[in-house]
Amino acid sequence: MNDSVARLARLSPEQRARLVARARKGTPPPRSLVPRVDPSGPIPASFAQEQLWFLSRLAPGVPNYNVPFRFALDGPLDVEALTAALNDVVARHDVLRTTLTAAPDGLRQIVRPHDRRELAVRDLSGYEDPDGLADARAFDLARAVFDLEEGPLWTVELQRLSERRHVLVWIASHAIADGGSIGVVLSELAACYAGRVTGRQATLTENPVQFGDFAAWQRQWLTDDRVAELLSYWRDQVHGYAGLGLSYDHPKQPGIALDGRTVTFQVAPTVAARITELARERGSSAFMVLLATYQVLLMRLSGRDDIAVATPLAGRDRPEFERVAGSLTNTVVLRTALDGDPSFGELVDRVRDVTFDALKHQDLPFGKLVEVVRPARNGQSNPITQTIFSYGGTPLMRGETAFGPNARLRCDGMSNDTVRFDFELVLDEKPEGLCARFEYNADWIDRRSAELICAAYQEILAAAVDAPELPLSKLPAPELPRWEPDESIPEQARRSTDEVSPLEDELTALWASRLDVDRVGRDDDFFGLGGHSFLATELVNDINARLGSRISVVELFQASTVASLAKVIEDQPDEAPEDTPDLAGTVERMSDDEVAAALQRLRSRA
For bias kind Acidic residues, which ranges apply (predicted)? Predict the structure, then answer.
């Protein structure tokens, strides 16, 4: 393999896709440099930070938006040097000293001065099962709740298993971190630690861009014209999509927590090698081959040939953003037509083209799409797509990293048993090979069903890459869960046909008064009529005072028409329960897209 090919092989799926797209259309003119902002003053928050901020105000205590990582350290370790190196890294990156605050002109980032932080050390070496205790402790840390206003928005703990074995647990709020930024932080931590141990200063280049610079640039880049252009594309992409229509093993009862579970497996080395070969033959990437396989699986599972899958993109395609610590990820929808019984190779081509187009339009915040499209919701599922697929992982996942002169660091990965989609498939390149985990909502899906899905994916993948010329109809049809199609109509999508009830009359009058409009129909949407966060709060207070009800602002988000909200009120018990469910639990049961849509409406109207 020559140097050029080797460099291409090391690129992420996103980078490879962009490179091919540029080669096809010619190199675009260079974009302007990202300007620096003054870190001593308030800095505009990113769009993702705004979403997380509103969620935290509505529901303190939700742990779903954490970025948990666990690293095994083998070899002798100097704790004092590690503590000093940690502080070196914190001083370098403003985002690690950032909190958020609401201001009259919007949400702002506040960069705090660097105060030395001590590294928490937990010695488990004297216990019978230090590894088990470390796992349990890491899980507890992964469910930590961060106060976005008070900070700090990350925590780190060193667990001592023996004299030469340690575990470093790093948990951060998604408001300041993603997988890419953890890679930046850990690589610099390793360099600074080596410098501290050896007495030689670490040779790190000055950070050209801080996260605050990215957030300010993001707002300048997304002009009204640019947003309109992006929305036009994404509206067309999701228009008319009917979803997977799956009913699962158990009905989606309201009021239950979203309890996540995981099934793991490893792709056979011979199959993994063939994935790389097929990707090269089709001018695509391993990501596209693996996604095409997943969409075949979803076609088998749902009986539909129009499949949309969400996927996270790193958002680090500009050179200035590659070494930025902070949350730059965004979610896009990849919708592929599987009709016409194409060969698997032809399907990979379709996925490649869809992916290239999505990459060119990836800058639109996902929540903005949900806000504008306003798809009908059905229970707790995400309204646009019910599943997410990701591949690649951080470079730290793919091997060991030298940590000082005598120690090695590797990422072991971890979960905090939360789930925000019905189910998702994640594949990572690790030292031991191509590893996968299937995360699913255990309240709806049995483990046996999850295991069948994992086995089916592996069988379809092996056959598809071995004979990509086969039409999809000739690929294996392995055993899958027998989920009946869910033909129910989402409550928000129904049009009311009964006569207007006295309760609905009361509600329409209250809505018209608060919204200052002459007339409100029973199927009109509160936010579509101009409602926003403050009016929502005032309206809920009006309704509860007039009717003696106990609805919450969150329930108005979920039932935002007069007819649907009237049903919520009618279904409430006559007396309040002794233990009223907390608001955090209510919001945690909302899907990612429901939260995003509600919060984007707040931001755009407030």
Answer: 571-581
